[in-house]
Amino acid sequence: MAVNETIEHRDETPQPRRRRWRWRLWALLALALLLAFGVWQERARRPSEAVAIIPPAAVPLPAKTAAPENLPAWIRYAVPAPPDDGRPRVVVIIDGLGIDSTKTARAIALPPAVTLSFVVYAADLAGQAAAAHRAGHELLLRVPMEPVSVNAAMGAYGLGRYMPRDELLRRLRWDLARFDGYVGIDNHMGTAFAADAPAMRVVMGELKQRGLLYLDARAAPTEPVAVAAQDLGVPYASRDIFLDGEEAAISVDARLAQLVAIARKRGSAIAVGHPHATTLAALARWLPTLRRQGIVLVPLTAVIRPRAAG
Predict the structure, then answer these.
(1) What architecture is the 73-309 domain classified under in CATH?
(2) Contact yes or no for 120/162 (Cβ under 8 A)
(3) What's the rounded Cα separation, in Å, for the pair 299 and 149?
(4) Which of 173, 221, 172, 179 is nearest to 199 (CA)?
């Protein structure tokens, strides 16, 4: 009995130890599996992160060399245009960008020869403008100016015709400092302001110092704007067609046809529109037809140059 009891005792005593080792093995196996899963996840995540920082394939752009720093900004930041071969040229400017990031992204996706204008009050303005610049677009800054209607707000940094010169310059300089790399400004509203010759001369004087151009995007360009630009040597042009006073697609199509007719008659024509869905859809239909029509789409500076020279 003593022998049997001893054998039974030896068989029973290792049981708890076996169990402990067994749990330790399971724990080690579970830990190894967790580590392996973590490594797999890290490897799976890295390629997607790498893809995210690679810029998407862009439409080929004309070769662009760095412009000398002593050139005025409207030439230094100009987007290269095809050589003038005598075909009529059209400029399409999408205005009012930056407020709605989705609409802005759709405008940036348009062909690089489309000129884009950003509102000074937009959030993340520098980032959105940089994305447009990387996509190859020529850029404008849309500056708010005093309208005729007292109900239309021009914001804290809008330009008013009766402001003291120092205040007018303070606001204008705040606007102009919103981002870099643009060729000039166009106006948001501004019918009342543009009729004031002294106020326009203050604006044109600042633009001349900075080497910027001025696009008059109002419905009815007025003489004080053109005169101030000419007197102070600021490159200037006014738009010929407003694409989307009404958002009906048929209206945009009709106005694009008018744009082509004006370009055929004068050699060039400028249209201003906004990133409305109907406008962008009409442009998507129209832009591929230009080559067949014998029309060339160019950035704004391509037509400002001969107009400025003239």
Answers:
(1) Alpha-Beta Barrel (3.20)
(2) no
(3) 32
(4) 172
For 264-282, how does the pLDDT look when each residue is reduced to its tens digit (9 = 90+)? 999 999 999 999 999 999 9
| 8 Å CB contact between 117 and 141 | yes
* Residues facing 242 on adjacent strands: 272
Q: Is 166 exposed, middle or buried (0-12, 13-18, 19+ CB in 10 A)?
A: exposed
218 in Cβ contact with 143 (< 8 Å): no
Single-letter amino acid, residue 298:
V
What percent of the chain stands above pLDDT 70?
A: 71
Please tell me whether residue 244 adopts helix, strand or coil conformation.
coil
Residue located via tokens 């303070």: 170
Any residues with CB less than 8 A from the CB of 195 and at least 6 apart, and which? 161, 222, 224
CA torsion through residues 112, 116, 121, 126, sign: positive
Q: What is the rounded distance in angstroms from the CA atom of residue 233 to the CA atom of residue 9?
A: 109
**Residue 185: strand pairing partners:** 141, 214
* Range picked from 16-20, 33-37, 68-72, 92-96 for highest mean pLDDT: 92-96
> For residue 144, which of 129, 131, 163 has the smallest C-alpha distance?
163
Query: How far, in Å, are 52, 125, 237, 261 from residue 177 at the CA level?
Result: 30, 11, 23, 38
β-pair partners for 187: 143
Domain boundaries, the chain: 2-53, 73-309
CA–CA separation, 260 vs 271, rounded Å? 10
Q: E strand or H helix at 175, and its extent?
A: helix 165-176
Q: Give pLDDT tens digits for 160-219.
A: 888 999 999 999 999 999 999 999 999 877 578 888 899 999 999 999 999 999 999 865
